[in-house]
Amino acid sequence: MELSTFAALLLATVAVITLFRHLTRRKLNLPPGPKPWPIIGNLNLLAGPLPHRNMHALVQKYGPIMQLQFGSFPVVVGSSVEMAEAILKTNDVKLADRPRIAAGKYTTYNYSNITWSQYGPYWRQARKICLMEIFSPKRLDQFETVRVQELHALLRKLFLSAGKPIDARDNFSDLSLSVISRLVLGKNYTVKSGSQKEFMSPKEFKEMIDELFLLNGVLDIGDSIPWLAFLDLQGYIKRMKAVGQLFDGFLEHTLNEHQKRRRGVKDYVPQDMMDILLQLSDDPNLEVQLDRTAVKAFTMVRTTLIAGGTESSSVTTEWAMAELLKKPEYFERATEELDRVIGRERWVEEKDIANLPFINAICKETMRLHPVSPFLVPRLAREDIQLGGYDIPKGTREIFGLSTPKQIPLVAEIEPRLPAHMYSM
Known about the structure:
By secondary structure, the protein is mostly helical. About 55% of the residues lie in helices and about 5% in strands.
């Protein structure tokens, strides 16, 4: 009798506490959005080969900020200039965390690179290293020779192919891949190096990079419905583990080569980004020491840039050419600007870009009309915030995606001095 009375009192206490919390809970003003289904939420609305098109249709209905439910997790989607500023600038630190998804766990050493690491000392140090060491103006100037050499190699190839059909995207892709692989790893892994036996062939290297980049952008069911993750319904986790192991072997090989090259050399001057990371790992003053795994994780995010930079650059360049061929008057104007500013006696150099406003506008307009990626890497709210007048609770995932080109006239805002008709390509 005493036990049953105690159980009844315990249940009554829990019920009262739950009711009190429910009654006193502040009613949140959440962004508009479609009503979610049980278990799957709104994932059904993104089904299909082009989920960003589905997302665009939802944006047209619910506005530049909306809330969806991806399985067990609320997701806020922003798709306007104002939302970009609010997510990427005003609330940058409050939204600096990343969701713990399978790609970060299995392909980036358990969330060890800057793309998927959580906000904290390690992340802050990684960001500082990127800004001050890896992508600083000094480093970019240091590696300009590599970019020029590879570009001239492509131009020679195109000259020898004059009169023959060529695949523009393949050539642009090879250019980007060779440049970035040399900058990051100090070696062009897209071509054979002669008689020396390679760890992997150029074809295997390209396939590995493509697979890594693809798997870091897939929508895995287990990321949204965690209790289904162990089933690996789409087979992505199996592929992530495989490419993660393959990439780890490749990075171990390249690390050993770099350490052998540095060994015993006094005042060694870094030749590439991996050299820079190894040099930083010897610095005892770092807030968080970089061990071998951290160096590989940092290198991996740079190497992921190989895939991202290769695909985005080649596709954007191809789109620019296609748009210009449809508008020969713009092609002629761009040619006139080159002849006037550069002349025909020398090559265009990177420092000339600032003096080519029309060509600069063509590049920006191409990226406006044909965005290289419809969504940015998702973020996670570290605390309760407000976006666009709506309440965003802690733990909500945020995605910023581009809407239609006409809704985000980025070029018109960046280059207002240029003719308005330039923005309607």
